[in-house]
Design a protein that fits this description.
This protein is mainly beta. It has 1 helix and 18 strands. It has 2 domains: 88 residues, no CATH class; 201 residues, Porin. A hairpin with a 4-residue loop joins strand 14 and strand 15.
């Protein structure tokens, strides 16, 4: 059988034997037609409906198998027209594809950065110290202030814990070798002398409290501090040389900003203020070759330090970082 689209196979063939005043139905896979009051004779209609992979395609052809007379031709033509007229709508309904729905977006888990964990690192920087010296037993009411300056460098170790969710608390130990030194020449009671001071090291144990914004951390710190100092003085007119050394205890406060720039590495810039109060120091030495002890030299000391440091953060106690979905 040949239709508009080429040679087709009939899916249904119904043969209607007609007699006068007899009506019948012709159907093929959802297609139907009705022929009434056909004259006697026999006709065969072939109705084609294809359905492939859920996609409807309907091509329909009516073929007259026997042509007894013009009346049969007319009847056949009428029946074919009735069947074919309703075919396209039915076939389209049967084979209409479902609407296209795009796949859901891919969810990629992205870890949220956390400052929780312990770290170790190093730093370099500089310090500026102020020292006020007085000797109430030797020269009542007289004092002078000198400044020392120099480099420092050392290391730090500590641990942080992030909570709530942007606050960070922690504890840190810090130690620096220092070369903060200076000298001053002054005249007291017509006696001229030169005094020297040097800070050999600084150390502290502090608590830290900070606010984190992703890989950035702004923090303040405070705690106990220690310093190792050396002093000396020379009075040429008396052929006198005296010296002293001490470990001072005080307190420190400071703050800084830290940036986690790559994997477990972070960099920080920090300012620290150290206050070691006033201590009475006894000097020992010689005057004109004779040993002597000079007690009651009061020294007040403060230190300002700026440090740049690098830390390596371990994952100890960190656990799994929370994740956020990224689309």
């Amino acid at each position: 059988m040949v239709g508009p689209g080429g040679l087709l196979s009939a899916s249904k063939i119904k043969t209607l034997r007609c007699q006068s005043a007899v009506s019948g139905h012709i159907g093929a896979k959802g297609l139907s037609g009705r022929v009434s009051n056909l004259p006697c004779g026999e006709l065969t209609l072939a109705i084609h409906s294809g359905d492939r992979d859920g996609v409807a395609s309907a091509q329909h052809t009516a073929e007259i198998v026997s042509w007894p007379d013009p009346i049969h031709r007319l009847c056949t033509f009428a029946a074919g027209v009735a069947l074919l007229a309703g075919a396209p709508a039915h076939a389209a309904d049967l084979g209409r594809p479902p609407p296209y729905r795009p796949p859901p977006p891919v969810v990629v888990p992205v870890p949220i950065f956390s400052w929780t964990g312990c770290y170790i690192g190093g730093h370099i920087g500089g310090g500026l110290a102020s020292k006020t010296v007085s000797a109430s037993e030797i020269a009542p009411g007289i004092s002078f202030t000198g400044h020392t300056i120099g480099f420092l460098g050392g290391g730090q170790v500590g641990c942080n814990y992030q909570f709530a969710p942007n606050w960070v608390i922690g504890i840190e130990g810090d130690g620096s070798a220092a070369d903060i030194k200076g000298e001053a020449t002054t005249t007291v009671l017509d006696v001229t002398g030169t005094a020297r001071a040097k800070t050999d090291w600084l150390a502290s144990v502090t608590g830290r409290l900070g606010w984190a914004a992703g890989p950035w951390l702004i923090y303040a710190k405070g705690g106990a501090a220690w310093a190792g100092d050396k002093y000396s003085a020379d009075i040429p007119s008396l052929d006198e040389h005296i010296q002293a050394s001490e470990t001072r205890t005080g307190w420190t406060v400071g703050g800084g900003v830290e940036w986690a720039f790559w994997n477990n590495w972070s960099a920080k810039l920090e300012y620290d203020f150290y206050d070691f109060g006033t201590r009475s120091v006894a000097f020992t030495g010689t005057i004109r070759g004779v040993p002597e002890v000079v007690p009651g030299i009061d020294i007040k000391q403060t230190v300002n330090a700026v440090k740049f440091g690098i830390n390596y953060r371990f994952d100890w106690g960190k656990g799994k970082a929370p994740v956020v979905a990224r689309y």
